[in-house]
Specification:
266 residues, alpha/beta, 5-stranded mixed sheet, iron-sulfur, DNA damage, hydrolase, DNA repair
Length: 266
Amino acid sequence: MDEARGTTGPGGTKGPSPGPDDPAFPSHRAPRCRSLDALDAQVIRCRACPRLVAWREEVAATKRAAYREWEYWGRPVPGFGPPDAALAVVGLAPAAHGGNRTGRMFTGDASGDFLFKALHQVGLASQAQATHAGDGLELRGVRLAAPVHCAPPDNKPTPGERDNCRPWLAAELDLLSPGLRTVVVLGAFGWQALLPVLAAAGWQVPRPRPGFGHGVHVTLAAADDGRPPLHLLGCYHPSHRNTATGRLTLAMLVEVFREAAHLSGL
């Protein structure tokens, strides 16, 4: 874990660093992390959004009847996947009784079941099911990330909560950037949240910004540091509503990941 650093105030004096309850905690801490392990350790400490903190902890205390024997994670959920991933998958936020329960992104709910089944079919996941953090699942060349790290009420984070959390995702993508080739974005919220993050992380996002759609493919040039272009793919979110109505089928999701794997050299 990176050591705490003071902030420089008037006259060059150092003051205390923002604590985990401070809205400035993500923007202060995230850029100082030099590894994904260090970043994840700081994400887990974050309490910058009071509404999300109250909700995630209430859910962890009251639980769902089916999981009454579980000890819920009840904290921000960090990204999941190897530090040299060539492909990132960006969703929305942890589910109240999914990632907020298991402590691992996209694990323990119907959306995750659908996602991991597709990743397994393409050879990007070691198994088709994800039930808990110690279930043996390994991702191959893929990192799962989210614009918001805490489970939000009704799966709807506010714009302010999204913006508070943005530095974590920007730092995560920057740390992945030496090998990152492709990002699959699940849903319109993730797409809208990601574009300014990519711009902050050093890729050229066109104006007007490209709109979200299933199957959309946008190629972003790196700003000025010699990195290769980044492929951005849009995909409907594997929410229960989308999968139950057939708006997103398993075959459609597998097709997106096959293309992403090809573009990423996986």
